[in-house]
Design brief:
Elements (H helix, E strand, L loop, with lengths): L2 E7 L4 H11 L6 E7 L5 H9 L4 E6 L4 H9 L6 E3 L6 E2 L3 H11 L5 E7 L15 E2 L14 E4 H7 L18 H11 L4 E10 L9 H20 L4 H20 L3 H19 L3
Parallel strand pairs: 1-2, 1-4, 2-3, 6-9
Antiparallel strand pairs: 4-8, 5-9, 6-8, 7-9
Helix pairs in contact: 1-2, 5-6, 7-9, 8-9
């Protein structure tokens, strides 16, 4: 089975080269890397040219916006399995082989998801389920993020496109959630997706400190989180559960005198409810 790896990129080069190097080492060689470049310069194109002899690369450009870039990339897909690596993630050597083997052995599956780990092997980018499961609309929040999602091409076609109002660079107040919204569309279409924590994609932990940059990121990401809850008609009791977690974190941080952490969790909680209530 041929993979199509759709990678949007903006503002990075060292990280992009790390990802390319990890792909060049994959035990499974049947893949195309679809690079959607949003940089105003040629930093990524230069890396592409250095790696062209080591893998099949399709080089494209698009307007800014992660969802816009992925939609441009999707129009170029020729593989049977589609994935969306971030430009700052990287793959262990057997990642593609693992996915291909899993989908080859179970034709009922339309996709596989895994978890995110940092360079030490510790979970990164949020909470993750520690047991294999079938993905549904309630556990999707702990069993998938953009770069850990692998879908058969027919499942991708069943969804159609990413919502360009969601995600980094969209120009809206909803700076995340586009990949979960996309995966929820696949689940609604009847696609069966399995989560396996043995499938691990490496990605740095983004929340290294609690500063203004983190607070701004928290506003955008959690407003997008809430927006996806609203778009997909989640029941109020589940929304309250997802609000209660950061609120509890806020209270614990205050008790411990960690004001910056408390502020971050307060932002997360309030922005989720605002996103859930958003219309338009």
């Amino acid at each position: 089975m041929k993979f199509s790896l759709v990678m949007a990129t903006l503002g990075r080069s060292v990280e992009v080269e790390r990802l390319f190097a990890s792909l060049a080492e994959q035990s499974c060689r049947d893949f195309e890397l679809i690079v959607v470049d949003q940089n105003p310069d040629d930093r990524v194109e230069a890396i592409v040219n250095r790696f062209r002899g080591q893998m099949e690369i399709v080089y494209l450009r698009s307007e800014k916006g992660l969802s816009r870039a992925r939609n441009v990339g999707l129009r170029a897909v020729r593989g049977e399995i589609v994935a969306f690596p971030d430009d700052d993630c990287w793959y262990a050597r057997n990642v593609l082989s693992f996915v291909a083997d899993r989908l080859d052995k179970d034709s009922s599956l339309g996709g596989v998801t895994g978890c995110s780990v940092d360079h030490t092997g510790k979970f990164s980018q949020g909470r993750w389920a520690d047991q294999p499961t079938r993905v549904d609309r309630f556990n999707v929040w702990t069993s998938a993020t953009s770069y850990t999602i692998f879908l058969r091409a027919q499942a991708v076609r069943a969804v159609g496109a990413f919502d360009e109002r969601l995600g980094v660079g969209s120009g809206s107040r909803w700076g995340a959630g586009e990949e979960v919204n996309f995966l929820l569309g696949a689940l609604r279409a009847g696609v069966s997706v399995a989560y396996d924590p043995a499938l691990r994609i490496a990605h740095p932990e983004p929340l290294q400190s609690f500063d203004e940059r983190s607070f701004n990121r928290g506003r955008l990401y959690n407003r997008g989180f809430g927006r996806v809850l609203g778009l997909n008609g989640y029941p109020w009791h589940f929304v309250l559960y997802l609000l209660a977690r950061p609120m509890a974190g806020c209270l614990v941080a205050l008790v411990n005198g960690d004001v910056a952490r408390a502020r971050y969790y307060w932002i997360a909680s309030t922005q989720r409810i605002l996103g859930w209530a958003d219309r338009g």
